[in-house]
Specification:
Length: 115
């Protein structure tokens, strides 16, 4: 019966230990990313539920900045303001009138990740 040498064993042990440590670090990184995602989602929902209050209490410069994040192509048509909603806000508005909005929730999530 033939075995492996101590040198071969040590090299393989080192390689497997390194791979294991790398996998553990990757798992920790993914776990933190998942935690960060839920914190971000919670923050977004909290801000969204207070959006009107936050907007009304903001200074004009802050209101302008907030509107520029949400709106594009703003024009005045007589007494009416015309605008387009930026992504993902256009999708959110679309979802609000849809009873099966969960099907596109993942698209909205991806838009926020890309921001």
């Amino acid at each position: 019966m033939r075995g492996i040498t101590i040198d071969v064993y040590d090299k393989r042990y080192e390689r497997y230990t390194s791979a294991k440590n790398k996998a553990v670090k990757q798992l920790e990184k993914l776990s933190k990313a998942e935690d960060d995602y839920y914190v971000t989602a919670n923050t977004i929902l909290s801000l969204a539920s207070r959006a009107s209050e936050l907007f009304e209490s903001s200074k004009p410069e802050q209101k302008k900045e907030l509107l520029s994040l949400v709106l594009s192509n703003c024009t005045l048509d007589g007494e009416k303001i015309r605008y387009d909603l930026k992504s993902p806000f256009d999708t959110i508005l679309e979802c609000a009138s849809c009873s099966i909005w969960l099907y596109i929730a993942e698209d909205v999530r991806r838009c926020f990740v890309d921001l």
